[in-house]
Specification:
With 413 residues, the chain is of the alpha+beta class. 49% of the residues lie in helices and 11% in strands. The protein folds into two domains: 180 residues, Beta-Lactamase; 206 residues, Hypothetical protein af1432, CATH 1.10.3210. Strands 1, 2, 3, 4, 5, 6 and 7 form a seven-stranded antiparallel β-sheet that branches. Strand 1 and strand 2 form a beta hairpin. The mean pLDDT is 90.
């Protein structure tokens, strides 16, 4: 067992780790994973404050995860909780105090809040001990609530959280709040960049880019698992991937409104101009100083390439927009990239972007039927899409469908 100093030292190490994560969604996953492991908690959730409510943003549950089997993911939906005394999380956010419950089904009855047992009934799970803490920034503003559930002893028996756990989780909450505030600022900066593209292209919405980014991370995780990529590399790369994939179409800011907002099919010449958005977006990151910028350039440039070599823009000079030396096609046009010449992140975002386009309404089409979408994705395996990436996509399709519901068009970042 660790003594108090060793525990504080470990918390400090964990704080350094979470401060290396830039993307908000990946950060929430990392925070909850560390907190659960530190307190040996079976489950947990994170709520983030949004206006006058708490939004349920992320959850983990080891018992339910084990029921699913290896490399499967829990599916969850987001919802809102009022910041008031009626719920445990709402009470914690309102009053900025830690609540430690040995058994949520055996409260005294004098508490102003109730435990909602609906999840337990639906999932056949038994919540017992629960430790809930507010996450506040340096100005004392509540950013959200962290909740861990069912502490376990060395025999995996459920036990109450201790009094010392209450003081220790406050350290986690402080570090988490600082990291979350920084990640939220990063997300807002990205969304402001994307809003410029949205002003030009109405389909390039915040919800769309969040869906594409989330799909891409799911596909990458499954692809990496299939390829036995080391977990440390996966964890590092998916942080940069999620942010970079949000900017896949940022080059559209340089395309004329006459093309972007044209309600009819584009002419050949108009489409040739539209295709320029791929390398124009990549040019923003042509001198990358981080893995994020490197992936952003790759994705912007190659997410319209096709596995069979019929995509665009192909081998191109990012500085001039001209065909790279030695890569001119037989018809005089730029020779497209083909197969594994296309960076894997480009291949992944290609699948995510097409799936979201087919699943979303456009001025020129209705939402496709789910069966038709799956048929189209299957049909293009080996043509438009990398077959291994398509296999990863279908392995995570249930999670991807839940992400679609998590980011409807009216949502904010």
């Amino acid at each position: 067992m660790l003594n108090e100093k060793e525990k504080i030292d470990l918390i400090t190490q964990i704080s350094f780790d979470i401060n290396e994560v830039s993307d908000l969604d990946i950060l929430l996953e990392r925070i909850l994973t560390h907190v659960r492991r530190f307190f040996n908690a079976d489950a947990g959730s994170i709520y983030l404050k949004q206006n006058d409510k708490l939004k349920f943003r992320y959850t983990q549950n080891e018992t339910l995860q084990e029921r699913l089997g290896p490399n499967k993911k829990l599916i969850f939906n987001t919802f809102f909780v009022p910041i008031n005394d009626h719920s445990i999380a709402g009470h914690v956010a309102k009053n900025r105090q830690v609540i430690n419950l040995p058994d949520v089904y055996r409260m005294t009855g004098s508490e102003p809040y109730d435990f909602d047992a609906d999840f337990d009934r639906l999932s056949n799970y038994r919540t017992t001990s629960m430790l809930t803490v507010p996450m506040t920034n340096q100005q004392g503003k509540v950013l959200g609530v962290m909740q861990i559930i069912n502490a376990r002893n060395d025999k995996c028996e459920t036990i109450p959280f201790s009094l010392s756990d209450e003081s220790l989780i406050k350290h986690f909450a402080t570090s988490a709040a600082l990291a979350i505030e920084r990640a939220q600022m990063t997300r807002y900066v990205l969304m402001r960049m994307i809003s410029m593209a949205e002003m030009r292209d109405p389909t390039e919405t915040g919800a769309h880019v969040n869906r594409v980014a989330s799909y891409s991370v799911e596909i990458y995780e499954q692809w990496a698992w299939n390829k036995s990529v080391p977990e440390t590399e996966v964890e590092r790369k998916k942080d940069a991937l999620r942010m970079a994939s949000m900017l896949h179409d940022v080059g559209k800011v340089a395309i004329s409104d006459l093309i972007l907002k044209k309600p009819a099919r584009l002419t050949h010449d108009e489409f040739e101009l539209m295709k320029m958005h791929s390398y124009l977006g990549a040019r923003l990151f042509k001198d990358p100083r981080s893995e994020f910028e490197e992936l952003a350039a790759q994705i912007a440039l190659t997410h319209h390439e096709k596995w069979d070599g019929t995509g665009y823009p192909g081998h191109i000079d990012l500085t001039t927009g001209e065909t790279s030396l030695g890569y001119e096609g037989t018809d005089g046009n730029t020779a497209p990239l083909k197969g594994e010449e296309i960076p894997v992140v480009g291949r992944i975002v290609a699948v995510a972007d097409v799936y979201d386009a087919l699943s979303s309404p456009r001025c020129y089409k209705e939402i496709w039927d789910p069966d038709r979408i799956q048929e189209e994705m299957h049909k293009n395996s080996g043509l438009h899409f990398d077959p291994e990436v398509i296999d990863a996509f279908f392995s995570r399709l249930d999670v991807i469908k839940s992400i679609t519901q998590r980011y409807p068009e009216e949502t904010s970042p």
